[in-house]
């Protein structure tokens, strides 16, 4: 694993054009063909979506056909659904609200989104489920609310076919409070218009990446123009770890700069204790408690701004290097905590838990580890980070992981692939191998939900391979040129 040392309220810009955006490749991967031929624009495809709920905007005077169950009463209040929840209940389902008659198809991708707030800090349950016993729920999410209206977006794939589905919000067991809901939408497909992709006009190019900094400082070098054109001008991730200083400030500054440019930033959280098994990129937080504080502050820095986050490259795959089961369970617990923080406090972030690469961990084992690490709390999983396997090989492995997830736990997840250096595939080596090439630049679709340059091309993997004297995370113009040329 290679160390990388470069270290506002929801915008409504571009909503008119983004509202019907959809990655055609994602829809196909989830088992449904696009409803119309997609028109590709800046890496985002668009197609018509089907809205399944009625009266999700509460623009009239009635809440119908939404119903209020026991221990709730509701009305339209200032263009929102106001639900007064009684106290004295024990379980979330003791005070339900919802809408019936939702048609679901097995294998179809859907996106539930809504804006919500509450008069007291509470955690409530949002589901899309069968409307009668056994109440099978393809989507079942816990959300944390307070007085600030926040937008929540949950993509999922249905595991059942029924005309008797329902959308519910189960709000019991939390005492008396008032819930406000608005802009409730359940659409077929995974709409980029309702997620961070639809909130921005493309991926963010980091002006302070290692390649960009090297180009600025070495404009006289004959290699600078080629590195600028092929690498420094391309969107890529910024890695954050124990070198980043005040992590909340560092993250906030990065996502704020991207937000100001109307672009989508990609961040990597890389600070798990015992990182990289003490190898080239060893380090990380000094204790579990320190990591919880660090990742909580990382999420604070994100806020409600749009972002993509890759969680702890190699941490799941490298469980085997930890000396005992206690330490393995501790790491899984820390990763679960990270996913829970992102789910609860970063509503416009799509987060992906790292799942190794196509030849590292058996798919069934990886599925078990992803489940234990809390992958169902977030958007999905990431593959091939800092590695070289082809996108096709990664997609095949992702399919096997999702098959295992579905067989064991009843769900599947979207995935992303690091394509920064996979243009020539893998030769079996991982640490600065020769003969590798830049892969497809960051885009929506193309064999995965997203193709991303997660590893910074030209940054060394460590003192190894064709860069035996270049420490991990240090930019090498020679490595960069060899990736450009495939030599």
CATH superfamily of the largest domain: 1, 4-beta cellobiohydrolase
Strand order, sheet with most strands: 13-14-15-16-17-18-20-19
Q: The biggest beta sheet, please?
A: 8 strands, mixed
Helix content bin? 10-25%
Using only CA atoms, what is the Rg? 23 Å
SSE string: HHEEEEEEEEEEEEHHEHEHEHEHEHEEEH
CATH topology of the largest domain: TIM Barrel
CATH-defined architecture of the largest domain: Alpha-Beta Barrel
What is the number of independent domains? 2
> What overall geometry do the principal axes of the alpha carbons give?
elongated
Instruction: Tell me the structural class.
Output: alpha/beta
In total, the number of strands is: 20
Written account of the structure:
There is one protein chain. Helix 3 runs antiparallel to helix 4 (224-232), helix 6 (288-302) packs parallel to helix 7 and helix 8 crosses helix 9. The strands form four sheets. An eight-stranded mixed beta sheet has the order 13-14-15-16-17-18-20-19, with helices on one face. The protein has 487 residues and is α/β, with parallel strands linked by helices. Helices cover 24% and strands 24% of the residues.
Throw out a few tags for this protein.
alpha/beta; 2 domains; TIM Barrel
In short:
The chain has 487 residues and is of the alpha/beta class. 24% of the residues lie in helices and 24% in strands.
Task: Show the helix and strand layout.
Blueprint: H1 15-18, H2 24-29, E1 39-41, E2 44-46, E3 67-68, E4 72-77, E5 80-85, E6 96-104, E7 109-118, E8 122-130, E9 139-145, E10 150-157, E11 162-170, E12 177-188, H3 210-217, H4 224-232, E13 238-240, H5 247-260, E14 266-269, H6 288-302, E15 307-311, H7 325-345, E16 349-354, H8 363-372, E17 380-383, H9 391-409, E18 415-418, E19 443-444, E20 450-452, H10 477-485
Parallel strand pairs: 13-14, 14-15, 15-16, 16-17, 17-18, 18-20
Antiparallel strand pairs: 1-2, 3-6, 4-5, 5-12, 6-11, 7-10, 7-12, 8-9, 8-11, 19-20
């Amino acid at each position: 694993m290679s160390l990388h040392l470069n270290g506002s309220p929801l915008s409504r810009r571009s909503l008119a054009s983004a509202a019907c955006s959809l990655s055609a490749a994602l829809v196909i991967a989830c088992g449904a063909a696009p409803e119309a031929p997609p028109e590709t624009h800046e890496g985002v495809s668009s197609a018509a979506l089907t809205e399944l709920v009625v009266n999700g905007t509460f623009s009239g005077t009635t809440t119908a056909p939404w119903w209020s169950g026991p221990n709730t009463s509701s009305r339209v209040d200032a263009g929102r659904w106001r639900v007064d929840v009684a106290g004295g209940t024990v379980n979330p389902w003791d005070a339900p609200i919802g809408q019936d008659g939702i048609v679901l198809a097995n294998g179809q991708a859907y996106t539930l989104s809504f804006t919500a707030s509450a008069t007291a800090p509470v955690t409530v349950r949002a589901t899309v489920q069968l409307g009668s016993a056994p109440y099978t729920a393809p989507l079942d999410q816990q959300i944390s609310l307070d007085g600030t209206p926040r937008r929540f977006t949950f993509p999922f794939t249905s595991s059942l076919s029924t005309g008797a589905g329902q959308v519910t919000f189960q709000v019991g067991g939390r005492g008396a409070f008032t819930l406000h809901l608005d802009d409730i939408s359940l659409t077929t497909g995974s709409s980029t218009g309702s997620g961070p992709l639809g909130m921005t006009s493309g991926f963010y190019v980091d002006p302070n990446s290692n390649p960009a900094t090297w180009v600025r400082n070495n404009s006289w070098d004959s290699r600078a123009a080629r590195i600028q054109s092929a690498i420094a001008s391309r969107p890529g991730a910024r890695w954050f770890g124990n070198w980043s200083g005040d992590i909340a400030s560092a993250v906030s500054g990065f996502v704020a700069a991207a937000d100001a440019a109307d672009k989508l930033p990609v961040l990597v959280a890389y600070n798990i204790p015992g990182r990289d098994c003490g190898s080239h990129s060893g380090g990380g937080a000094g204790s579990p408690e320190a990591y919880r504080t660090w990742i909580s502050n990382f999420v604070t820095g994100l806020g409600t701004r749009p972002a993509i986050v890759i969680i702890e490259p190699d941490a799941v795959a490298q469980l085997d290097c930890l000396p005992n089961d206690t330490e393995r369970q501790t790491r899984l617990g820390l990763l679960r905590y990270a996913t829970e923080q992102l789910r609860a406090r970063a509503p416009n972030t799509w987060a992906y838990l790292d799942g190794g690469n196509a030849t590292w961990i058996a798919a069934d084992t990886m599925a078990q580890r992803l489940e234990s690490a809390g992958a169902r709390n977030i958007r999905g999983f990431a593959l091939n980070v800092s590695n070289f396997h082809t996108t096709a090989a990664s997609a095949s492995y992702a399919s096997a992981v999702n098959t295992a997830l579905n067989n064991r736990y009843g769900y599947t997840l979207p995935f992303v692939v690091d394509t920064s250096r996979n243009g020539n595939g893998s030769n079996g080596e991982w640490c600065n191998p020769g003969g590798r090439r830049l892969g497809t630049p960051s885009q929506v679709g193309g064999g995965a939900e997203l193709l991303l340059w997660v590893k910074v091309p030209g940054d060394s993997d460590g003192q190894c391979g064709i860069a035996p004297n270049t420490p991990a995370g240090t930019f090498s113009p020679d490595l960069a040129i060899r990736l450009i040329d495939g030599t």
